[in-house]
Amino acid sequence: MSKARVPWKAVIGGSVGNLVEWYDWFVYSSFAVYFAASFFPEGDTTAQLLNTAGIFAVGFFMRPVGGWLLGRFADRKGRKAALTLTVTLMSASALLIAIAPTYATAGAFGSLVLLLARLLQGLSVGGEYAASATYLTEATPQGKRGFASSFQYVSMTAGQLVGLGLQIILQNTMSKEDLSSYGWRIPFIVGAVGAAVVFYLRRNLLETEAHDEETRHSEERGTIRQLWAHKKEAVLVIALTMGGTVAYYTYTTYLTKYLVNTAGMAKETAALVSFSALFIFMLLQPLAGALSDRIGRRPLLITFGIGSMLGTVPLMTALGSATTFGGALVLSLVALVIVTGYTSINAVVKAELFPTQVRALGVALPYAIANALFGGTAEYVALWFKKANIESGFYWYVSALAAISLVVYLTMRETRDAALTRSEQGESVPVSV
């Protein structure tokens, strides 16, 4: 195993943008109850339709677009440039929401500003994952990549926890009237400031050696044509992502609603279960990532695939009947330990599949497509099954997707020892994975 040191500056700079992204994503959905009336007044059908069909859906719609545009940008202009651009988009989107005029002062213009902000958010989220995954993988030496890349999900989870923490503070220090009037703007101001801090950190990052030394086919870098030459790997990314992303969204963003709507748990208790489970889940990521550096990526993915395929139905059934904090927390943790086999290493696995000249796009576009189709729709599919009075159908849906991904894990090649630079290959020619 490599004795090389972990480049902590690169790890922090490369991953911390995910914290801001997921913080922004969380506070938008959680504070919508306070600002919705400011932009979409009751009785205005057009604005309400824009809200439901446009504003909330447009973020996921734009993620594949962001994955394509920013993945191409990262391959052509560099990982550092892409990381700086994504965080700029983050700051702009948060600031736009913070200063957006209400319906009372500007009519439908306020809704358009909100829509523009969500377009920017979707673009930045679509590009951030791939840019940071590629940067963390390339900036870290062999033997440490699984550990370093796991901080992507550490920061993503931390973003949700920070957003939830701020929500709790504001709810306990401000009246509902004040939150609905102006307090809801506070978390978006915090998000814009946080993005500005990340921008400063990323301006001081170094470009990766793998990107700097890659000179072949420079005019073809990051193009769809280059990606098509690696279509097998692109399809592989979609297939290995589908089971993991639907499981992740099921046990993180959907969990609180499920405990309230199905188990009948008090909202405060359900929120505490989610917060506690997510905190422990966050701490597990580096441990699992480091384990993958020792035993390989496939054993963790296979463990997740088997656990999710066989465990989803009994776990979700038990969670649906959970009545106490302790019982729900234990069940949630069992589920999240299983999911950790995917989340801790999925970024590095995808990056290790592609050659340098198309690595960012190869991670970005297929992942964004899979995430939009399966992760972003998880909550809607779950609620559709519930409304149809066949809620258990959703459990089997998650299990089926995990089974498909398991087949991929069992047949794919191990990527842990992929050489990404000339020095790692021990050759003087440009690297090709």
Automatic annotation (TrEMBL):
Return the similarity comment: Belongs to the major facilitator superfamily. Metabolite:H+ Symporter (MHS) family (TC 2.A.1.6) family.
InterPro entries per UniProt = H+-coupled_symporters, MFS, MFS_dom, MFS_trans_sf, Sugar_transporter_CS
How is this protein positioned relative to the membrane?
A: Multi-pass membrane protein
* Keywords linked to the UniProt accession: Cell membrane, Membrane, Symport, Transmembrane, Transmembrane helix, Transport
Residues annotated as transmembrane = 21-40, 52-70, 82-103, 182-201, 234-251, 271-288, 300-319, 325-349, 361-382, 394-412
- UniProt key word Magnesium: no
- Tell me the protein's name: MFS transporter
Localisation: Cell membrane
Question: Which residue range or ranges hold the Major facilitator superfamily (MFS) profile domain?
Answer: 10-417
